[in-house]
């Protein structure tokens, strides 16, 4: 059973304002929830149609799950976890920085990429979509438990950081012909506008992904696929 | 003005069955429509709230556009184009093959990748989402005009093709340490299940993208990001 008050407290977490106020976020589906249960994230509530063998779990009906789920097709369970405190930002190794990435699916894919390529620091501008947005949480497939995400004033962060700052620009140096360092910040820009003028000033090394084909008419790659290619170039050595 | 009958004829194109029956598809938004107008695709209808200076155009109200649009926020214009006839499949150069990619956004991103990397042949299994699905058309950003897409029985195509067939598998050869040929077929698998057993048998060269980081817990990359990294490896030389 789930009370009206509980329904209200959960559904309000779909909004960033309340997630920040309550310090809580939603994860759905057995696989994603289990990734969080097996991490340092603190479980607050677990509503499920089938048992997880977890003390806090409350078995509810499919119908009740529908009332709290953010998914069009609810997936057996919904859990509420605490948003962890922001850990101190390290400044060595490879760091990924996002300048206003707005699409939750793109952010989720980028968090999975960080996890794959062992990038454990992701720095986001304040305008970047919230990583505890339910769509982002679902798209990360659990990678959110292994990547530390920081929301900062990106411009002042990049001004202070003692590392080379890389960004992709049409006129940049061919990334296939450049040796990428082990430490540095790689900046990815907004879906429609790329890297903003204010952030471009902070970029110390402009790079580019060569374009092939006779027509050369494609305007750009999707931010997540560009990120995939660039992270791969940093890691392949 | 747009008639009731026209509205009916356009909205039915949201379904694959009617797109195939009528041989027509929908494109929306000035930028995407212009890419099709500047290509070999044949325009059938153009309904727009602002002029394109095109003979066939019909100026309609925002309200009428809402009635025919597939977008949550209609974007000034909707055009109907003819689905081109299937061109004969070439069998040299780099060819990308999709084994049941189901998500329209992923297919759109993959078509953009083909365009970027000069892959002009994309071969899809019959189970792959239709490339004239409105969500795919929008996600391609016009790249659909520059990539030839074929829907085939993928298994029999791969059995007959006279090229090495590459596929990503956990146990495959490190792609960073392998020299990729100029000609070959690269197969990408389904979002949830990867490459199917029937198609795996046709793969002559298993490759893998190395995973980094201490935990090595990420299960997989998104199909479009994996495709981005692999196409980049084929092209970087």
UniProtKB/TrEMBL annotation, chains A, B:
Biological process, per Gene Ontology: methylation; RNA processing
Record keywords: Methyltransferase, Transferase
Keyword Methyltransferase: yes
N-terminal signal peptide: none
Presence of keyword Nucleus: no
InterPro entries: Alpha/beta_knot_MTases (IPR029028), MRM3-like_sub_bind (IPR053888), Ribosomal_eL30-like_sf (IPR029064), rRNA_Methyltransferase (IPR051259), SpoU_MeTrfase (IPR001537), tRNA_m1G_MTases_N (IPR029026)
SUPFAM superfamilies linked to this entry: alpha/beta knot, L30e-like
Domain tRNA/rRNA methyltransferase SpoU type: 94-231
Entry GO MF terms: RNA binding; RNA methyltransferase activity
MRM3-like substrate binding domain sequence ranges: 5-79
PANTHER family cross-referenced by the UniProt entry: RRNA METHYLTRANSFERASE 3, RRNA METHYLTRANSFERASE 3, MITOCHONDRIAL
Family: Belongs to the class IV-like SAM-binding methyltransferase superfamily. RNA methyltransferase TrmH family.
Protein name: RNA methyltransferase, TrmH family
Species assigned in the record: Olleya namhaensis
């Amino acid at each position: 059973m789930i009370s009206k008050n509980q329904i209200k407290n959960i559904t309000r977490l779909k909004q960033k304002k309340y997630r920040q106020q309550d310090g809580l976020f939603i994860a759905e589906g057995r696989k994603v929830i289990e990734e969080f249960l097996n991490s340092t994230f603190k479980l607050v509530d677990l509503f499920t149609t089938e048992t997880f063998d977890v003390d806090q779990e409350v078995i509810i009906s499919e119908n009740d799950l529908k009332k709290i789920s953010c998914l069009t097709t609810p997936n057996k369970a919904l859990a509420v976890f605490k948003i962890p405190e922001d850990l101190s930002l390290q400044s060595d190794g490879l760091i990924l920085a996002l300048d206003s990435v707005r699409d939750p699916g793109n952010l989720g894919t980028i968090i999975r990429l960080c996890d794959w390529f062992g990038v454990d620091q992701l720095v986001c501008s304040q305008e970047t979509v919230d990583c505890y947005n339910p769509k982002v949480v679902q798209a990360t497939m659990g990678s959110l438990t292994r990547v530390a995400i920081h929301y900062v004033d990106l411009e002042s962060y990049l001004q202070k950081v003692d590392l080379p700052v890389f960004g992709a620009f049409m006129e940049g140096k061919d990334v296939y012909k450049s040796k990428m360092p082990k430490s540095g910040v790689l900046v990815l820009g907004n879906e429609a506008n790329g890297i903003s003028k204010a952030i471009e000033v902070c970029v110390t090394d402009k790079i580019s992904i060569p374009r092939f084909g006779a027509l050369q008419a494609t305007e750009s790659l999707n931010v997540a696929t560009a990120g995939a290619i660039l992270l791969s170039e940093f890691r392949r050595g």
